[in-house]
Amino acid sequence: MLFPVYWMINVSLTPQQDMRKDPPDLLPLHATFSGYRAVVQDQLPNLGTSLLIGLGTVALTLALAAPAGYALATLRPRGAGAVGLLLLVAQMIPGIVMAMGFYGIFLDLGIMDTWWGLVIADSTIAVPFGVMIFAAFMSGIPDELIAAARIDGASVWRTFTSVVLPVSRNAVVTVSLFSFLWAWSDFVFANTLDSGGSMRPITLGIYKYIGNNNQEWNAIMATAVVASVPAAVLLVLAQRYVAAGVTAGAVKD
Description:
Order of helices and strands: HHHHHHHHHHH
Number of helices: 11
Helix content: over 70%
Structural class: mainly alpha
């Protein structure tokens, strides 16, 4: 599993003239940092755009998924079972099908090639997952805690914001992490909905290096290495919360 990561780093340091060497060097014996210089010169704006899209997707996903999960878990409205089924079905729709649908809608609305349009598109992947995670986690919160808040006079919204949401930290971190990673690594929506805009995500920045007659592999791999760093750091920092968040609701007392 780690070999592709190692090979990505190895190729990012390999000079262009050694790319087709047979057999290839297992170590970058003549290391070059030209690929990383290309990242600094060409890709920093794209990294900033991806960061903006990722954070926007996290914010929109939490704003929609947390209240919806709370409603399904504690308020138990009519049709909650049907909503849960629809959330599962939404996870099964191929991304390319959704991208083509978004293309027609965005074209009619005139919002092609916008970063916030990609936020909306990426959120359609993250929100159903987020609702299921929040609903599973919040269903495990003791009913006595919610009842105590209501006895003290808290409204449904106040109970959600002041009691339920603070104790749902693991679910918040889990949903935020996966939402950010989906938006950060998205290529299908980006390539379909932002083909010529001035603010392009890093996935399209990598794709720019690939042409019919030229493949700048050290620049491609150097960009991939740099783009992998935020995801790797977030996974390391949040792994404890994610482990608790994804298993929440699996066992009931």
